[in-house]
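Run log // design_07
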């Protein structure tokens, strides 16, 4: 499998980092594009650096390189995940404003009818945000905010991050076993007893 992963400058850089990390472990060919703001956010919010991502990704592109392979629909990939996705990036995608490679690569997924997953990081939302999400959804994109669930009884921030990352990977049928899936209330009760 060949996936494009975009990391925008929104808070939540760990989502993009963890997706690259898990794809690397699963043998997925990762084509990575990172905004300049995201580089700063990665280094501020995590213990990772761009050099770490370069080692994990199959190919890393300059966000200003609109001539890159992933800017063309003739370059075959299985889809793209933008994690995290800022409102600026969402707006660029919703309006086909392809001034940077990250938004151009996302636009290519939509025009080629490939899967595009946006892990939108913003709250609260105003009507303009919702309208941009609606536009992307109508074009075939998937809005997948990293909203934590608690039925798997997370014990750490990593547990919460991993559940959202697995939900994004699920869109491409990639199983990284990052959290315990829901098996029904009875199974959940047994697990809960183990934590008491």
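design_07 sequence
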């Amino acid at each position: 499998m060949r996936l494009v992963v975009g990391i925008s400058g929104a808070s939540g850089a760990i989502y993009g980092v963890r997706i690259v990390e898990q794809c690397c472990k699963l043998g997925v060919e990762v084509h990575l594009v990172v905004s300049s703001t995201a580089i700063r956010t990665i280094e501020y919010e995590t213990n990772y650096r761009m050099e770490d991502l370069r080692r994990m990704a199959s190919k890393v592109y300059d966000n200003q390189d609109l001539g890159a392979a992933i800017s063309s629909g003739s370059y075959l990939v299985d889809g793209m995940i933008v994690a995290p996705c800022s409102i600026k990036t969402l707006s660029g995608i919703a309006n086909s404003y392809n001034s940077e490679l990250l938004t151009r690569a996302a636009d290519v997924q939509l025009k080629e009818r490939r899967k595009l997953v946006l892990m939108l990081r913003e709250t609260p939302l105003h009507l303009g945000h919702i309208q941009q999400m609606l536009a992307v959804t109508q074009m075939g994109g998937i809005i997948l905010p990293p909203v934590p669930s608690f039925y798997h009884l997370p014990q750490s921030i990593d547990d919460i991050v991993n559940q959202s990352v697995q939900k994004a990977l699920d869109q491409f049928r990639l199983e990284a076993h990052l959290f315990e899936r829901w098996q029904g209330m009875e199974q959940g009760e047994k697990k809960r007893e183990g934590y008491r």
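The chain has a mean pLDDT of 96.
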